[in-house]
Amino acid sequence: MKKTPKQKVEEVFGKNADKYVTSNSHAKGDDLPLLVDWLKPEKTWKVLDIATGGGHVTKTLAPHVATVFSTDLTRAMLENTAKHLRHNFDNIEYVVADAEALPFLTETFDAAVCRIAPHHFPQPDRFISEVAKVLKKGGKFILIDNVAPADPELAEFMNTTERLRDHSHFRCLSKAEWATLLKENGMKELKSADRRKTFDYPSWVARTAESEGQMEEVSRHLTGATQKAIDYFAINGQDGKIQDFTIDEWMALFEKVDQK
Fold first, then answer.
1. Cα–Cα distance between 200 and 143 in angstroms, integer?
2. Max mean pLDDT range (4-13, 98-107, 210-219)
3. What is the spatial distance between Cα 179 and Cα 223, in angstroms, rounded to a whole number?
4. So where are the chain's domains?
5. Does position 109 have pLDDT exceeding 70, yes or no?
6. Which of 72, 168, 191, 231 counts the most CB atoms within 10 A of its CB?
7. If pLDDT is split at 50, 70 and 90, which confidence band does 259 have?
8. Where are the beta strands (DSSP E) in 41-124?
9. Kind plus residue range of the DSSP H or E element containing 161
10. What is the pLDDT of residues 139-188, one digit of tens each?
C-alpha cells in the first residue's frame, strides 16, 4: 500500500530522530538567537512550537516564557526530544500534533514558531489557517524554512533534489507563495530576512537517505545540473563528488491582525 505524505514523515523522522537533535543546521543555526530578539517574549506568554523536530526552538524559548507547547507529528521524534530537554526545563508540554489540524482552542497562544519544517506539509494553506486560528489577536508568528527560488526551473531543481534525498519532503514554497497565504489569513508581516544556507553534502545526504543507491541518485542529480543551477545553488564538487551546495532560507515575523 502506498504511504501517504504524513506516513512518510513519521517513518523518516522516527528512524532519524536523534540525528535532528545533533544536526548542525538544526541545532546551531544563527537564526535561533534571533527568535528571542525578534519575538521579545514575555514571562507570561504561552508559546507554540510547531513540528519541533529536535526541540531547538523549544529549548531557545523555554527560559523566556511561561509555557512552551512543543509539538510534532512523529511520536518517536517528540519522545526523543523530551528525553533531551526534560532534565533542564519544567515548563514544556509535549503534544503529538499535526500542523494542519492543531488540537488547540481558538486564540490560545501569544506566539507560535515553525522552523525548517513546512516543506514537509502537504497542505500549507491548512497549516497557516491553523496557525492563525490558535494565535491570539496581536499574537506573533515566526516562519523559518527553506524556500524555492522564484524561477520555476530552479524551484523544480531544488524540490527534486530534496525529494530524491528525503522521501518525506513535499514542496518548498517560494517567499511570494508564503506571503500570500499569510496575508489571506490575517497575518501582517513585521520583519523578514533572506538567508543563504550551505549544506555539507555528505552529512546532509546521509541524514535521511535509506541506501547507498539513494545517495548515488542524489549525487547524479546534482552533478548533472545545468550551469544555471550550479551557479545559483553554488554546487561545489571535486573529482566527481559533491562537497557542498547552498539554498535559500527565509525567516519572517508576522502579527495576527484580523480574523480570517
1. 23
2. 98-107
3. 33
4. 5-148+169-198+249-256
5. yes
6. 72
7. low
8. 46-50, 67-72, 92-96, 109-115
9. helix 152-165
10. 999 999 999 999 999 999 999 999 999 999 999 999 999 999 999 999 99
What's the Rg (C-alpha) of the chain?
Answer: 18
Going along 152-240, which residue ranges are E strands?
A: 187-200, 236-238
Cell of 123: 497542505
**Whether domain 5-148+169-198+249-256 has CATH 3.40.50.150:** yes
141: three-class secondary structure by DSSP:
strand
Closest CA to 246 of 196, 178, 204: 196
Q: Are 16 and 54 a contacting pair, CB within 8 Å?
A: no
Task: Output DSSP code: residue 98.
Answer: B
Across-strand partners of 256? 187
pLDDT of residue 238: 83
Whether 154 and 229 have beta carbons less than 8 Å apart is answered as yes
Please tell me the predicted confidence (pLDDT) of residue 240.
78
The pLDDT tens digits of the residues spanning 205-218 come to: 998 888 999 999 99
CB contact at 8 A, 50 and 112: yes
What is each CA distance from 230 to 96, 194, 247, in whole angstroms? 39, 20, 11
- pLDDT computed for residue 19 by the predictor: 47
